[in-house]
Design brief:
D-Maltodextrin-Binding Protein, domain 2, six-stranded mixed sheet, elongated
């Protein structure tokens, strides 16, 4: 390839994928996944590129339309273009997938009331009172034994505060400077140690179960939960690939969603941002492609992605010049591995 070759990339502004960066000199610049792919393509092809960023929302159809009307064979459509038979029939070539994606659900996290003594939750109140009673009893017996005439020759802990400190140190797994010398005291403390070991292990096991039950308390955990409830409204972005996928799917739950949206068109939103805002402010579940949902959840700790990935789709690069296809495919195959790593940490 000639170093003077310059190609045009048509894309669209979307959070995470392609975002405009403010610059002091007034020159538009961009950042995001699309820029990373474009930079790698330019590097591998020993070329430069011009980025045309369309502000058209989330439907990638206008990007393909711009590609089709372009007379320049050095024009590439780089966006969230789903590989499908309908798009291949339009007369454009599509590369290997640079990302494997799917639809998921965005919900507001259940509100949990945090309080100072939440760490007491894994054990019942009677158990805590029992532990307190056992602690006081051991302290008292340890002190009494130190005063006993039967063990007078071993006497060392004659102060009550030493007995309390020794027993408390054993409870929290810490050492102390007082050494027990009487046989009775050693037997008592050995029994106390065994009791503490059992209590700590029981608390740890109950804490894990307590946290698991708290996570399972959410009302919506899957698409099946969503379509069989009436408390939450749900919707998608209107006139997007997500809506088309749901309407064309043979999956029973997707068919239920499509029927619900036809009956309740007011739950369709005009943008991903509007859908996310409705999740924050209403009893609303937003159904959308998983990448912007994960990005939204990573930016706002009150949101979470639930239900897993409900289907599988592939994003590809579109072009009209067939002689570019092999070059772009080689670049995409290398970039896809890095993208998968990025998605694992987002």
């Amino acid at each position: 390839m000639s170093s003077l070759m310059n190609f045009t990339i048509i894309s669209q502004l979307q959070p995470l994928y392609l975002m405009e960066v403010n610059s002091d000199n007034g020159i538009k610049s961009y950042e995001g996944i699309m820029v990373d792919i474009a930079d790698e393509m330019a590097k591998q092809m020993n070329a430069t590129y011009n980025m045309i960023a369309l502000d058209i929302g989330y439907s990638s159809d206008p990007v393909l339309d711009e590609l089709l009307i372009s007379d320049d064979n050095l024009t590439i459509a780089l966006s969230t273009i789903t590989i499908s038979k309908d798009r291949l029939d339009k007369g454009v070539g599509l590369s290997f997938p640079w990302a494997t994606v799917g639809i998921s659900l965005l919900a507001r996290k259940p509100e949990t009331e945090a309080h100072l003594f939440s760490f007491l939750g894994p054990l019942d109140a009677t158990v805590w009172f029992g532990i307190l009673g056992a602690f006081l009893a051991v302290c008292f017996l340890l002190y009494v034994m130190s005063k006993s005439k039967l063990e007078e020759k071993y006497r060392s802990n004659e102060r009550l505060d030493n007995s309390i400190w020794f027993t408390f140190a054993a409870l929290v797994g810490q050492g102390q400077d007082v050494a027990l010398r009487t046989p009775g005291s050693k037997i008592l403390i050995a029994s106390w140690w065994m009791f503490v070991l059992l209590i700590v292990n029981s608390y740890t096991a109950n804490l894990a179960a307590f946290q698991t039950v708290s996570q399972m308390s959410r009302e919506i955990g899957s698409l099946d939960d969503l379509v069989h409830q009436t408390k939450y409204e749900y919707g998608v972005v209107n006139n997007t690939m997500t809506q088309w996928t749901i309407e064309k799917s043979r999956n029973e739950n997707f068919q239920r969603v499509a029927s619900y949206l036809r009956e309740n068109p007011e739950n369709l939103v005009n943008s991903v941002e509007e859908g996310i805002q409705r999740v924050k402010s209403e009893n609303y579940i937003f159904i959308e492609e998983i990448i912007p949902l994960k990005y939204a959840a990573s930016q706002d700790c009150s949101l979470e992605v639930v239900g897993g990935q409900l289907n599988t789709a592939f994003f590809g690069v579109a072009m009209k010049a067939e002689h570019f296809m092999t070059i772009v495919d080689d670049i995409i195959l290398g970039f896809a591995n890095a993208f998968l790593f990025f998605m694992s940490i987002i």
